[in-house]
Amino acid sequence: MTFPWHLYLMAAVYIFAGIMHFIKPKAYLRIMPRYIPQPKLMVSLSGIAEILLGIGLCVPALKNLSIYGIIAMLIVFLLVHIYMLSGEKASAGIQKWILILRLPLQFGLMYWAYWYLQF
User: Fold this and answer.
1) Distance CA 85, CA 80 (A)
2) Sorting pLDDT into bands at 50, 70 and 90, what band is 70?
3) Residues 6+ apart with CB under 8 A from 112
4) How many CB atoms lie within 10 A of CB 28?
5) Which of 92, 76, 93 is nearest to 36 (CA)?
6) pLDDT tens digits, residue range 6-24?
7) What is the mean pLDDT of the chain?
8) Closest CA relative to residue 119, chosen from 1, 11, 25, 38
9) Nearest 5 degrees, angle CA 113-CA 54-CA 118?
10) b vs e for 97-109, b when ≥16 Cβ sit within 10 Å of the residue's Cβ?
11) Tens-digit pLDDT profile for residues 71-97
12) Alpha carbon of 28 to those of 16, 58, 68, 80, 81: distances in Å?
């Protein structure tokens, strides 16, 4: 089965994002909500999840499961984006207008993933 090239692009985006959790963990720790226990572990686990889900997109037998996993992960990540709007420290120095724009971007990413269920 051949997938469209842009599915592989999406896979590369998630694999790259997951790898970045290990290259720049402090950037992810800065935005981790304070109420989440073991933030270092959570950054690592979310990085592993992104890498595995990205790889899964490229495996025909795992593609649909990976898509549902990505959508679920993006829903959970919405909590981080909302948390970042809660105050100056939580924003990690990112301007509020950028944080607000990230919310609809999450839904766009969910739709992008969902769209591939047809292939």
Assistant:
1) 9
2) very high
3) 10
4) 21
5) 76
6) 999 999 999 999 999 999 9
7) 95
8) 1
9) 35
10) eebeebeeebeeb
11) 999 999 999 999 999 998 899 999 999
12) 14, 26, 23, 10, 12
Number of Cβ within a 10 Å radius of residue 54: 22
CA distance 74 to 67: 11
Tokens of 116: 């591939």
Q: What is the pTM of this model?
A: 0.92
Contact between 70 and 13 under an 8 Å Cβ cutoff? The reply is: no
For residue 46, what are its two tokens?
Answer: 């979310």
So what's the pLDDT on residue 2?
A: 81
Burial class (CB in 10 A: 0-12, 13-18, 19+), 84: buried
